[in-house]
């Protein structure tokens, strides 16, 4: 057993079996002479390990087995040693813990001290082309166990370079130990450990430095090239960064300030593209995809929008061979967009046939022509093709594409020098997306792109503010002479207020875009285009209101032009949620808000004739009946003059409310007639009274018309369905 076999695969196999037999049968070294011989043989194994490995030509050798066994002995993991011996011998062997006491002493005290183990482990070469098909005990197993026990930190042995090289040397299918290796490496850097002797957290950041941005950039700078680094390498580095950010933010209050990757650096990494590749090849990356998806949804919600995922599946399947695409052809096609749009269309069609990564080199040229697509001379077909190209580019580096798009359609100010926006600028103020060329709001294809960018930028802004709160925790001890700092609760409330303000402003702007202008009436066919614009905006607002009903409540409490109510109620399917807060809106002291609430109730009732809507409508009639008896003449005329059309809609939706409505209208009419009769006395005549008389007469006429419409549309209505 303790012979020195030749450096052949068979010799290495014999050495591995002999080593496991010594552990499985400790009685073999029961005598001092046998023990001394075994120690001498083990020292020979350690000394000549590199020579034997270089000759046998296999990736997994007894050196890793020897090192892994020493690691388990140091960690007192006897069950792991038993499993290791059983798997090597190919049979189940029960190794008693009591029998391993002497062998443990030999390994840990005479041959492999913990310092020797850690120093030796980092010198072991990485496994080239590491993948799941390579079996046996590899250096990665040893490094993984040492990282779990934090031996590298304890003995101040740097391990970052070894892990980086091993990640870069990985190939698909993914080796099952690589993801846990990344996790335990990140954990050793950021998760604090209780003091044990002289070991404190300070040693952590000395020996476990994070992988630098430059090292990561070297890999991802070639990620979109044909002969770039393997997908396994890129996914592992992506997993490392996401896991690092996750643990850094979760433990930010318990660890010293750690290195933070910049926003601009992260925006240059094709996170979304890599995740899509992992999704399509889950057979090779099954152990990694779910973790990546969870971390992406948590820390980059703007890259995990539902619409993007649905369209990505459709766009990714459209690849075919087409004409040759060159930079010059793209430039020529863009220049002919208004003069010879057929050439532009052919160029865009051929561009769509390319894979997304091959399209990306032309992204800047294509997106810079966004403003040209708004020209009235550009056919709708070309605009739709441009939109399809943009959506396909959005699957590669979406954040870079958003910045290009916003800079391409920004509103030009002649007296102010143009400033190119960056990712940081847009995340801090996402409303800059809407400060664009006004023609975008009358072009459905361009508006669809803009709304996609707006949705993503608002999500990115929310995420940025949340991370800012975590990165800058409030300080309890401000010291004398310093103003008191807001608490974490107050800072969270301020953040939520800022986010809600940004999103409500965006909704208000989009609602105003739906209003018909004089220019729309003058341009032939523009009203048909406006209908499509309204449909696009209402679809977007529907998603916004469903995801955040509180935002819908805020927007309606802020109010918007009442002319938009029929458009919003008919076009936004989620407007039925307004019935939850209409009673509260109706109780506001402002007459304008009450008028808005009653108008809203009438339109919602007509669109959603539900029991809850009927309750709100009945409440509105009762409220108006109460206000009729308490409001002065001028306020009463102002209120009822605006809400009379709402009576018609309420009665049309709910005929049982006709009686109450007509009774209220009759009472209102009698009051107006009585006031006019009193005003006929000569002593009472003055300017204000005259104005009230005129208003009462006008209101009486409107009441009669409303009465007639209610009878016609509700009482005499013959069509039930």
UniProtKB/TrEMBL annotation:
Regions crossing the membrane: none
Entry keywords, A to Z: Nucleus, Signal
Chief location: nucleus
Entry GO terms, CC: integrator complex
Cellular localization per UniProt: Nucleus
Pfam short name (any one): INTS2
Region (Disordered): 471-490
Signal peptide: 1-30
Family note: Belongs to the Integrator subunit 2 family.
Protein name: Integrator complex subunit 2-like
Protein's organism: Diaphorina citri
Gene name of the encoded protein: LOC103522279
